[in-house]
């Protein structure tokens, strides 16, 4: 009886040891790839507690989070023969843990090497203007170049971005002079356009004032008010021309009214002169 109890205890203890030896915990951000007798199983283990066969199974954990990997600065010559230095950053993640574990020894290092070679290639195929202004198209092309070999490793390239483009100092000075000349040209064009519009408005205003003398008088009064606001001791006001014209017309009218009676009086026959006493008598 005692031997049976001891045997049961021993069996239970061995089972607990086996269970403990074969129990593994997979984190939420990981997936487990199990190798049984050196051969990878087709399916990976999900997060949580999983059990392995002791001495037969071996599990390798693969991180499935997005990896941010900076690409070192690469120096190259663009298609228009400009020497530049460009660096970038790659965002990728593992989509197939089994292939990432068995197809490539170190998928992070492999993606980094492909990114460097692809970046040098994209520099040689692009112009300087594309590197500076059309980066979205370059990002898409660079992501396709890196994703092509990475797809066979169970890795997906989320995106690739060019961080900085370093230009030679001589080219920076040339571009600065060019930009300054362009700004001066735009400023002159804007100034000339403003003067042209102002001249047009002044011409329109002069035509309106010439057709409407009252508008000229109102403008004169407004100018007087503006000048009077200044701290001047003397204010010289021009005599209105319209008032002079009014006086001229009034004078001519008066001259015309007085001239008619004078002419009638001149045309009236004169009375005969009285005869003297001594004349006409015998």
Automatic annotation (TrEMBL):
Transmembrane segments: 6-26
InterPro entries in UniProt: Band-7_stomatin-like (IPR043202), Band_7 (IPR001107), Band_7/SPFH_dom_sf (IPR036013), Stomatin_HflK_fam (IPR001972)
Band domain mapped to chain residues: 21-179
A cellular-component GO term for this protein: plasma membrane
Pfam entry (one): Band_7
UniProt KW Membrane keyword: yes
Biased composition (Basic and acidic residues): 255-269
Keywords recorded for this protein, A-Z: Membrane, Transmembrane, Transmembrane helix
Annotated region described as Disordered, given as residue ranges: 255-282
Sequence similarity: Belongs to the band 7/mec-2 family.
Protein name: Slipin family protein
Organism (species): Streptomyces dangxiongensis
